[in-house]
Fold this protein.
Amino acid sequence: MYRSARFIGLIISSLLFISVVSAQQATPTPLLPTTPPDEFIAQTDPASLIGSYYNAITLGDYPRAFSYWIQAPNNQTEPQFAAGFSDTLSASALVRLPIFEDAGAGNVYASIPTLVTAERRDGSTVFFAGCFTAHKSNVPVGNATEPDPNWYLQKGVLKQVQTPDFTVLDTACDTEYSLTDDPNLVPSQLDPVQLIESYFSMLITGKVVDAGALWENPGDQFLGAYGKEVEASLSINLYVNPVIYGDGAAGSIYASIPALVVTNSPANTHLYITGCYVVRLSDVPVGDATTPDPNWHFYNATFNLVNDAPSAIALLNQSCTGRG
């Protein structure tokens, strides 16, 4: 059995992060785990990049965090960058899906609405919300014969928030889409994040049969548990913790996705449904196939229904994560 870190990521301007942390009023109850997470390294999609960045900060691996930037924030040196996090014990982020990407002239840019929870060394917890930009080149650079598959941090704009208000993320970036109106959203099962994004897009646009087909037996566990809540909602927003760990054994790879579904009712009230979605990929051919199926499927899930955002954040940060 092996452990691998895959998929989703997050970004932030470290100087802005540092200055806001110093000024923010603290909330009394820490929402992040006290034990350090396992190492998570992935840059092949924007969300994974962000998850890797905050994982490095939490582990005190400032050289790795520094390396994710195209250019250091405010032209800081690496020691200056690291010194800015001297008061930060740990940090975690939630990313709103879908993530808007804009491609052109050999470049791709991703705009990522993000909510950050940070714990300081004095035990207080602070929150930030904003939009971050990641960049990837679609063409070889320099002497390379192939494009670099990795994303890098370009910039980030965060504002302090007194409470973790997810509605701020609805307008955090200049261009945003919902799960119902993204013209570039093509259903895909090629990685866990695309799988969960595709599932909820299908579910809330009435493609219930297609959504259910993404689940292995015994079927669609989310709809079975919360079908009434989905039917009664005006809209649904989806957020993921972009640190997604994977384990492999016996011809399969499993990944655990910490995700939050927020339903919006006609009375403008919200339900917060946290989930740990276990997804599976076969890495051996099945049946008459000569190659493994490249698609992920939902294998299992556990859910919790809570009434407020802080409780949802605490649950997401305690489940589905690598803890030594």
Q: What stands out?
A: The chain is about 25% helix and 30% strand. Residues 1-29 have pLDDT under 50 and may be disordered. The CA atoms of residues 139 and 145 lie 9 Å apart.
